[in-house]
Design a protein that fits this description.
The chain has 168 residues and is an all-alpha fold. It is 77% helix and 0% strand. Helix 1 crosses helix 3, helix 5 packs antiparallel against helix 7 and helix 6 runs antiparallel to helix 7.
């Protein structure tokens, strides 16, 4: 029963655009008596979307480990949890690093969607400054801020990827 709920929730969160989820949390949940600030609505929606995609990425990583690895570990006397912890997960994590890095960057970029419910993030602030001055400099600074945020994340992802790469 819980498995069906998890599969359903993950499929819904992956299928709906993040903006729809943000708007639903901010505008629909108060009708049910649950009030959240714009920031919390955005954070919760994007966190749940990242969770749903991460679950699928990890599941794909585990399924990508050849069946023979499982069987070899089990034939040496390792139990299921030991096999998972010592043999399968180390291989699966290697496979999941690039897509997890990409998904993390994509979700962080989606913070701009929070502007719809009045979250003052980078793009929102740059747009406000631009509308006051009609000078595109704030928009360029906003783009530079995103670069400053994401270049270290990309570099860290690459470093982790090469650190855990299979040695030949």
């Amino acid at each position: 029963a819980i498995n069906v709920f998890i599969v359903f929730a993950v499929d819904v969160l992956r299928a709906l655009p993040p903006l729809v989820i943000i708007i639903a949390f901010y505008f629909a949940l108060p009708a049910l008596g649950v009030r959240m600030s714009a920031w919390v609505s955005t954070w919760l929606a994007l966190s749940l979307v990242l969770m749903a995609f991460s679950e699928e990425i990890f599941w794909a990583g585990i399924l990508a480990v050849p069946r023979g690895q499982w069987e070899a570990a089990r034939s040496t006397g390792l139990g299921f949890l030991q096999t998972l912890r010592d043999v399968v997960l180390p291989q699966a994590v290697r496979l999941t690093i690039p897509p997890l890095t990409n998904r993390t960057i994509a979700i962080t970029k989606n913070t701009a969607l929070g502007a719809v419910v009045a979250v003052g993030e980078i793009l929102y602030q740059a747009q406000s400054a631009y509308s006051f001055s009609y000078n595109p400099s704030p928009l360029l600074l906003g783009a530079a801020a995103y670069l400053i945020l994401f270049i270290p994340v990309v570099c860290f992802g690459r470093w982790i990827e090469t650190r855990f790469a299979w040695k030949r």
